[in-house]
Each structure stands twice: as structure tokens, then as C-alpha cells.
Write a structure and sequence with these properties.
Low-confidence stretches: none
Number of helices: 13
Helix content: 40-55%
Keywords: Aminotransferase, Transferase
Shape: globular
Structural class: alpha/beta
Distance between the termini: 29 Å
GO molecular function: cysteine synthase activity; O-acetylhomoserine aminocarboxypropyltransferase activity; transaminase activity
Radius of gyration: 21 Å
InterPro entries: Aminotrans_V_dom, OAc-hSer/O-AcSer_sulfhydrylase, PyrdxlP-dep_Trfase, PyrdxlP-dep_Trfase_major, YhfS-like_C
Number of strands: 11
Organism: Candidatus Olsenella pullistercoris
Protein name: Aminotransferase class V-fold PLP-dependent enzyme
Strand order of the largest sheet: 1-7-6-5-4-2-3
Mean pLDDT: 96
Length: 368
């Protein structure tokens, strides 16, 4: 199978991002504040917890943006509020010719938005769609991670093409599963807003972040004015701690994925036809068996120490490797694949552990 996984930072590149984040933190927090678990409530003068404000400034610095705001609702909430800030109800949004992520579709449907479709792998398709709907499109939404197995587009090139066609029309990027792993997010490549879940960068559940152009970020912030909408200081500090440790941890994960795929493709394990790395949401190893044993392998996996299901796909809770069915987009591409393919998210495991578990599972299947 030919796949086009996103680039993963090397250890050295990830370390530099960690250092950049910590350097920013020393500029926005005093030493005492950095050790404070965080304040609560709508503080006089700011209407927000002070620790949240400081953490947001670090996020903006880390990704070279004018501003950032933490929001409730994880990545879904971040994307939803970004679309609300950029698109009027009933507006038209340019999207990739692929299944829209289910939670994003809920937002678009709720807002009564219509979509214009272009193949983001093809610049001519983008140009044609924009020309045919000139004056109609009020926002473009680009997902950084792959939506289909054969997606190969470079985010920066797509943003540049859309910008050349639509001018100042807002561009929003969904950077879930890419944040801290790749070298640049949407806002660093010319998009107006970048969104992702802080749960995907080792933070707490339920918090997302919107990063980018100050005018639009401030619009999102204004929509979070009530006390119950505020991300509290202690939550913001947990988000910040996760951001500090995510780059290096996730760079190791990316390198391990490639090692596992290379070893399996070289014939290290019997009954495995091949393996490849793909961004099936998060970066994972797609393993293809010679026979239709995928369901049996997955049924046995938990007893051998593998996680049977995701929590947040690389959340702070997930350290053992996950053996799981291939994603819906892969199944849609070819339904028969689910009978002979699985995906493995290595999480914090080493290649030896992943391959050892897979060997035990294959042997158990053929011995039964």
C-alpha cells in the first residue's frame, strides 16, 4: 500500500521546540507562578484566570502566532468556535474531497453551512472550485492529517493555493494529530486560525486551543466570556505542562512507527505480508496479513498487553501500544481490508515490544 505519512520531527528538532516552549514560559511566568497550580474564575480587569492568560501567550509564542485562546470542547470545540468566528450561519465552506470528520460535520450542519469540494491533492482542482464559486465561499477548512489513504498534499501548498484564489477569505486548519509533531502548523504556513485538542499533546481532557490571527482569536475569546466557559488556571497549567513534554515524546513515537514498519516489511515476522506508516488520524503502522486473521488478532490483543481501544490517540493515558481496526476512511476505500489489516499505534512502546506482541498474537491464531 502506498501511503504519504506526515513528517515527524527528529529528536533534535523536537528538543528545540521543547526549549522554545520553556523559554517562552520563563518570559511570561515568574518562577513562583510557574510552580502555581493555577487561579480560578473571572478575575477583575481581565475576566479570565491569570494563569490561563499566561499559558495562552506561551502557545502563541510556540507556534509563531499573534494570539491564542484555550477553549472547552477539545479539538471539536476549538474548530467549532473557529468556524463560528469566521463563517456566518448558512455560509459556504471550501473542504477537501473526502469524508468530513464526523464532529466537524455536526458543526457545519448545525450552522446550516454548505460545502464546496475540491481535491486538495490537485492545485488545478482547488483553482477550479474557487473560480466556479467565486464570491460564494466564506471560509476554507483544511485538515492537516490525512483524510484518505492516498492523500499526499502538503498543507502549506494548499494554503498558498487557496490564498491565491480567495484572497482574504479566512482559512482554518484542523491540526489534530499533527501539533508538535510536524515542523509547522497551519498558522505558521499562512492560515488564519489553527485548531487542535490539547488532549493530543499530553494535556487534560476537554480543552482545545485556537491559535492565529489576533482579530479572529479575540472574536473566539469574546464568545467564552462566562465563568463556566473559562478554561481555569489549573487546567491551563496542565495543558502547558503537556505541551512542554509532547514534542520529544511524540517524536520518539513517530520514529518507532517507521522502525516497526521497516522491520515488518523486511520479513521479520511470518504471515505478515507487509506494513506501512500512515496518518490514519494519528500516525500508525498499518499491518497487512497474508490471511484474513485481523479480527482474531484483535480479539486476542488485550490479553497480550495491548490496548484494545483509543482514549484520545496519544493522550497522556496511553502508553501501551494499541492494536485496533483500521480507520473508517481505510475501510471505505476497500471494505475487504478490515479482514486482513490492523493498525498499531505504538504509543510509548519500543519496536521490540510491538513486534513481540504481534508475534505472540500471530502464533496464537495459527496454533488455535
Amino acid at each position: 500500500m502506498r501511503t504519504y505519512p506526515l513528517y515527524s520531527r527528529t529528536f533534535e528538532e523536537a528538543r528545540e521546540l521543547q526549549f522554545k516552549i520553556v523559554d517562552s514560559a520563563t518570559r511570561h511566568f515568574s518562577g513562583e507562578e510557574a510552580l502555581d497550580l493555577g487561579d480560578l474564575g473571572v478575575r477583575p480587569g481581565t475576566n479570565r484566570p491569570h494563569q490561563t492568560i499566561r499559558a495562552e501567550k506561551v502557545f502563541a509564542d510556540a507556534f509563531d502566532a499573534e494570539d491564542a485562546v484555550l477553549v472547552r470542547g477539545a479539538g471539536t470545540g476549538a474548530l467549532r468556535w473557529s468556524l463560528v468566528a469566521c463563517v456566518r450561519p448558512g455560509g459556504t465552506v471550501l473542504v477537501h474531497d473526502a469524508p468530513v470528520y464526523p464532529t466537524t460535520k455536526v458543526t457545519l450542519d448545525t450552522m446550516g453551512c454548505s460545502t464546496v469540494v475540491a481535491d486538495f491533492n490537485d492545485a488545478a482542482s482547488i483553482e477550479r472550485a474557487c473560480a466556479e464559486h467565486a464570491g460564494e465561499i466564506s471560509c476554507a477548512l483544511v485538515q492537516h492529517s490525512r483524510q484518505k489513504p492516498d492523500d499526499s498534499y502538503e498543507l502549506g501548498e494548499v494554503i498558498q493555493e487557496i490564498r491565491s484564489c480567495l484572497g482574504d477569505v479566512p482559512i482554518v486548519t484542523d491540526d489534530n494529530y499533527a501539533a508538535t509533531k510536524v515542523m509547522a502548523l497551519g498558522c505558521q504556513l499562512g492560515a488564519d486560525l489553527t485548531t487542535f485538542s490539547c488532549f493530543k499533546v499530553l494535556g487534560p481532557e476537554g480543552v482545545g486551543v485556537v491559535i492565529g490571527r489576533r482579530e479572529l482569536v479575540e472574536r473566539v475569546r469574546e464568545l467564552q466570556y462566562s465563568g463556566g466557559s473559562q478554561v481555569q488556571g489549573h487546567e491551563a497549567m496542565a495543558v502547558l505542562r503537556g505541551l512542554v513534554y509532547a514534542p520529544v515524546a511524540l517524536s520518539i513515537t513517530g520514529a518507532t512507527c517507521h522502525e516497526v514498519a521497516e522491520r515488518l516489511s523486511s520479513g521479520e515476522l511470518a504471515h505478515v505480508r507487509g506494513a506501512s506508516v500512515a496518518n490514519a488520524e494519528s500516525k500508525a503502522v498499518i499491518v497487512e496479513f497474508e490471511d484474513e486473521i485481523a479480527e482474531k488478532v484483535l480479539a486476542l490483543a488485550p490479553a497480550h498487553g495491548a490496548a484494545p481501544n483509543p482514549v484520545g490517540c496519544e493522550s497522556k493515558y496511553e502508553f501501551v501500544p494499541m492494536f485496533y481496526r483500521i480507520s473508517a476512511t481505510f475501510r471505505e476505500k476497500d471494505p475487504s481490508w478490515q479482514q486482513r489489516m490492523i493498525r498499531i499505534n505504538v504509543m510509548r512502546a519500543g519496536a521490540d515490544t510491538v513486534i513481540r506482541i504481534l508475534r505472540e498474537l500471530v502464533e496464537a491464531v495459527y496454533e488455535s
